[in-house]
């Protein structure tokens, strides 16, 4: 019997070997480069799908298979979108300088002393944070062993939340909430029915992402470092510019909001690009990404903060611009006669922001994997969705639902810890004006637990997106480097898309 070979990777001789070969054919039909003069004039293949000439092109260059393999393992080290990086650093220096001048002149926000017992608050925060980190670590193994059941539970949970909203609206007499909740419940039921057979595939995507993160737990440490920077920036911006809002024109207020959101977007997306680079290396060259702080993590972090930093600043600015517009609208709101129009504008801005954040999520994966500039990465996202369509969206959405559910669960667990601490010492939050420490203890515990879990699982979320992209483009390398996971993925893919057998 002849064993099919795909890109040098033999497909195991099983009873469904023909199906497996078809599977790899379908997965890779869009990634093979086209050579010769036909490549420049044929952006679409014979089957109507975009050819690889439109998929992996860098400024007109079509990569050969050896070049492509080298590019995957060693992304281009070239400074991309340099002007945006320079603009960001200039803006940051100016804003920090203004904040320092306002501090020196006594014009910043003055924090008045009060009777809050910082020691007690630090104690509760430390205990809940320690418990949250432990629970997050246990959650990795729990999700690995129960991925499919958790995806199912998360999907049902999201549908039931919509039903609860509808029922709450009926009970309280809020007709709008009731209608929206029940419509959302109906749509959720239809969605759950339509995608239920794709749950195994999404579950294996989740399991694969978790495997990559477990091999590179240094990513979590880097994530906490970026969160510390984000916290420091928020503190500096608020204390330095908080008083500048009074009497300032709307243009000045808009620029202050833009600065705030742009910096936060840059920090968040730098972490996302770093994760994509590490998980991509684990996919294509696992020996370079197989320990807590591997070579892949150092290289990916350096690329994200140097060569690809301009691309990160570019895409982050686009989202921050819309966020600043929304914040400005909230700040300037006050005309009740225009409330309906204001609501429409808010909805439009929210939709634009959501679409841009969605595009950035996938574009930055290509930036992390290949070192493309922002425009090139955006083109690759378009090609990805032209070829894979809703498969990418559904797989990513189903797996991401699990992370939100787990973050809420960890938050509730640490909230209970805070509740117990509050009840054990009724004077724990007296300095904050609470005679009973139970409720503030729960709130502090929940916020700390949810925040820590969101940071921890946010890395997994970035890894899920990277796995989806890598699997769409290089399933054969997955089979070669991670055969057990690849076999699970192939089996789940065939269950979700049985037409591959025909």
| Main pleated-sheet profile | 2 strands, antiparallel
Number of strands: 4
Helix-strand sequence: EEHHEEHHHHHHHHHHHHHHHH
Return the average pLDDT rounded to an integer.
77
Strand order of the largest sheet: 1-2
Layout of secondary structure:
Layout: E1 5-6, E2 9-10, H1 17-28, H2 37-41, E3 57-58, E4 61-62, H3 65-73, H4 82-104, H5 118-145, H6 147-172, H7 175-195, H8 199-215, H9 218-241, H10 250-284, H11 295-305, H12 309-332, H13 339-370, H14 374-388, H15 390-424, H16 438-473, H17 475-481, H18 483-496
Short description:
The protein is mainly alpha-helical. The protein is 75% helix and 2% strand. The chain has 18 helices and four strands.
Question: What report would you give on this structure?
Answer:
The chain is an all-alpha fold and 502 residues long. The strands form 2 sheets. The protein has a two-stranded antiparallel ribbon. A two-stranded antiparallel ribbon has the order 3-4. Helix 4 packs across helix 12 and helix 8 runs antiparallel to helix 18. The longest helix has 36 residues. It is globular, with a radius of gyration of 25 Å. The two termini are 21 Å apart. The N terminus is likely disordered.
């Amino acid at each position: 019997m002849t064993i099919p070979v795909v890109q040098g990777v033999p497909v195991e001789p099983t009873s469904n070997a023909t199906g497996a070969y078809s599977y790899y054919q379908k997965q890779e039909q869009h990634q093979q480069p086209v050579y010769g003069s036909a490549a420049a004039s044929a952006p679409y293949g014979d089957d109507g799908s975009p050819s690889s000439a439109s998929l992996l092109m860098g400024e007109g260059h079509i990569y050969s298979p050896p070049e492509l393999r080298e590019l995957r393992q060693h992304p281009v080290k070239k400074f991309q979108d340099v002007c945006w990086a320079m603009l960001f650093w200039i803006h940051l220096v100016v804003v920090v300088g203004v904040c320092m001048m306002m501090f020196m002149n006594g014009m910043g926000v003055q924090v008045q002393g009060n009777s809050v017992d910082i020691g007690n608050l630090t104690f509760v925060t430390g205990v809940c944070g320690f418990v949250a980190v432990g629970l997050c670590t246990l959650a990795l193994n729990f999700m690995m062993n129960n991925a499919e059941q958790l995806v199912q539970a998360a999907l049902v949970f999201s549908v039931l939340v919509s039903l609860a909203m509808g029922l709450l609206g009926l009970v309280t007499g809020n007709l709008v909430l009731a209608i929206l909740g029940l419509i959302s419940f109906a749509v959720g039921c239809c969605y759950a029915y339509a995608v239920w057979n794709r749950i195994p595939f999404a579950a294996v995507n989740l399991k694969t992402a978790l495997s990559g993160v477990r091999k590179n737990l240094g990513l979590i440490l880097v994530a906490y470092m970026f969160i510390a920077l984000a916290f420091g920036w928020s503190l500096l911006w608020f204390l330095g510019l908080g008083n500048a809002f009074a009497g300032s024109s709307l243009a000045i207020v808009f620029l202050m909001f833009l600065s705030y959101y742009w910096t936060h977007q840059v920090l968040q997306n730098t972490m996302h690009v770093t994760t994509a680079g590490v998980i991509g290396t684990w996919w294509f060259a696992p020996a370079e990404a197989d320990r807590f702080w591997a070579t892949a993590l150092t290289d990916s972090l350096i690329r994200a903060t140097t060569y690809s930093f301009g691309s990160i600043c570019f895409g982050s600015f686009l989202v921050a611009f819309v966020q600043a517009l929304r914040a400005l609208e909230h700040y300037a709101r006050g005309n009740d006669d225009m409330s309906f129009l204001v609501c429409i504008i808010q909805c439009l801005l929210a939709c634009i922001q959501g679409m841009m954040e969605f595009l950035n999520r996938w574009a930055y994966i290509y930036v992390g994997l290949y070192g493309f500039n922002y425009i090139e990465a955006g083109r690759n996202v378009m090609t990805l969705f032209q070829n894979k369509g809703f498969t990418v969206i559904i797989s990513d959405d189903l797996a991401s639902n699990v992370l939100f559910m787990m973050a809420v669960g960890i938050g509730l667990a640490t909230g209970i810890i805070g509740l117990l601490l509050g009840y054990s010492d009724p004077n724990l939050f007296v300095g904050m004006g609470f005679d009973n420490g139970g409720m503030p203890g729960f709130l502090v515990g929940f916020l700390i637990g949810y925040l820590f879990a969101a940071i921890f699982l946010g890395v997994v979320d970035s890894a899920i997106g990277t796995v989806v992209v890598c699997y769409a483009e290089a399933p054969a390398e997955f089979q070669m480097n991670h055969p057990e996971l690849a076999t699970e993925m192939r089996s789940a893919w065939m269950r979700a898309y049985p037409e591959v057998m025909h």
